[in-house]
């Protein structure tokens, strides 16, 4: 390989915390870990926080690579060990405390500055390969560019879309009339369901469990199969979908109707709901949870969980049980339960009865690890703040007979290092769009109030 095609990626600490195995993501290129990064990982690994687990995984990964290396080999770089065009480069640790005189742009002894100085040193000292600083800290990227570093990047190997507008919405809107475009097609009846087969050319790029709607008031369908250039879809009927109810809740628009159809289908193991604040994600999910747990008896219990950065730090100091500790962060769920029972004569009594009958449990994301959850309706709320690896941890907890609903608004990310395109929610939407056991619906339109709708559009 031409030496000028080879790059040296200098990794910041937050990259290893975001994805502990990120060192294997740079293919044939070399990876450099500044000593400051190891020091920061060491400080983080013993904290009583969720992030300390990722720090320990990163440290163990580096130990596995360097355990037999001599000090000279560590500085020069050792092979990452994965061939077949995957991670065939080298990895080195470089001391950034004592760089040769004249290379330090920043003189104050701060971790970010030492890492930037290291990248600048490698840029000047190793002309045979590009030095690229990789960090998820936006301000650090700006500082590095301002200091003269030519190549600065975000860590994007778990980013599947370049523009959030390209994210799969879970439905395909056909202009005018769908049937006018189809003409004749093969149809078959299975019990109460009618299944049609059309050419895949009619709906290029369609994926399993994608909903189909048009501009008329009577057509709605869902793709259930793709084979030999043909698509099979079940005819749902818009009027039937709009007339469905869950725990007394009826959809207010076709987007809510599609979401409700996926939520009430026991054959769909995971439903991903995205959309603006006030579009009905949590309300529909809770109504479906109660309907399928209490009325239909499909699930034994309901677990509600969400990620908030403060929980890991402060939950232990709050009084009460885990459910009581979680209550302040899950107020959105209790608000939803109140809306579902606001017509009851004694709402407090109804809520207590329902909480017991549906066995509703409030859990922290941190306590979901290591569990195997069976026959449960799991609602993971606000998951736009989770990384892809965190979501993988939760999804892999779901055992037989469990339905997982992931909901979130990509416009309300609170995490320091996540953007709409790097959020774990975006990642699973793209990864699961062709999985027959999952459905994704973007709920278009704010149903909360005209005030909320105006704010969403104009602020």
UniProtKB/TrEMBL annotation:
Cited Pfam families: PhoH, PIN_4
GO MF entry, a single one: ATP binding
Cellular component, GO annotation: cytosol
Keywords (A to Z) from UniProt: ATP-binding, Nucleotide-binding
Domain PIN: start-end pairs: 7-142
Residues passing through the membrane, by range: none
InterPro entries, sorted: P-loop_NTPase (IPR027417), PhoH (IPR003714), PhoH2-like (IPR051451), PIN-like_dom_sf (IPR029060), PIN_dom (IPR002716)
Family membership: Belongs to the PhoH family.
Name the UniProt record assigns to this protein: PhoH family protein
